[in-house]
Structure formats: C-alpha cells, structure tokens
Amino acid sequence: MKEIDAELTRLVALRAKMSAASTPEHREKLEAVIKKAAEIWLIEPSDILSYSRLNWIADARQSVMVTLYLDYGLRSSLVGAMLGRDHGTVLYAVKAAEAKWTTDPEFREKFTRLRVTFGFKPWILRKNTTLDRNPDAIENAQ
To answer: Which residue, 123, 128, 127, is CA-closest to 141?
Structure first.
C-alpha cells in the first residue's frame, strides 16, 4: 500500500507542477478524492490519472473531476491541469456524470458514496439541470 501511496503522491506532484495555480491544499484534496474514488471503484489510484477509457476507470475519473470542480469549487482549468486534462474535459465530465446519475444505479451508488465521504450531498445539484428543474427527478433517481 505504501508503494501505491508513494506513486500517487509522485503523480499528483508531477501533474500539479503543470499547474502554477495549484497549492498544497489543492493537491491534498486531489489526493484524498483520488484515493477514495479508487477504493470505491476497486481500481488503483494511478488508474484515475491514466488515459484509460475503460468505463469503470472513466467513471471514477469523472467523479473525481466533478467532486473537485462542483463541490470543492476549484476552477475547471485547474482541475484539468491537475489531472492532465483540459478544462473542456472537466465540463464534459459534469454532463456525463449528470446523465449517468439518472440512468445508472451502480454509478449513482458509487458516486453517492464518494460525495458523502467528503460531506457533500449525495446528488449533483446545479442550476439549470434536469435535477434542479425537476425535484421529483432526485427522488426517482434515488
């Protein structure tokens, strides 16, 4: 486990160097969210930082992006830089997670576990989304 933690710390530090706006606090949040997402999705933390397009890895990666962007309020460009992506990928992750939330019970359960771990509401709630416009969709989705 120490090898995984050391590798994750190395990868996070490397990616954070690419973003001059990144702070130690941002890196701590990133590392904590990545570790928990990897635990929930039963993958290695380094998988989240990889470029794999396997569904379960992409779901975990998108959940990390959404948590950092929407819940922690980090800029999409910063989240993208810390994960080796651009800001458009982060914005796409938000839309993809919202879509999966309403259609995929397994994703909803895992994403809820991730968000609740860090003290956030178990659902995505943004202005002008289906869930925001239709409160019944939240109840039906759960």
So the answer is: 123
Alpha-carbon distance of 111 to 25, in angstroms, equals: 23
Q: Where are the domains of the chain?
A: 2-141
pLDDT tens profile 119-131: 998 776 555 554 4
Match domain 2-141 to its CATH number in 3.20.20.450, 1.10.1750.10, 3.40.50.720, 1.20.810.10.
Answer: 1.10.1750.10
Please answer whether residues 141 and 99 qualify as being in contact, where contact means their C-beta atoms are separated by less than 8 angstroms. no
Residue 85 has pLDDT above 60, yes or no: yes
CA distance linking residue 36 with residue 44, whole number of Å: 10
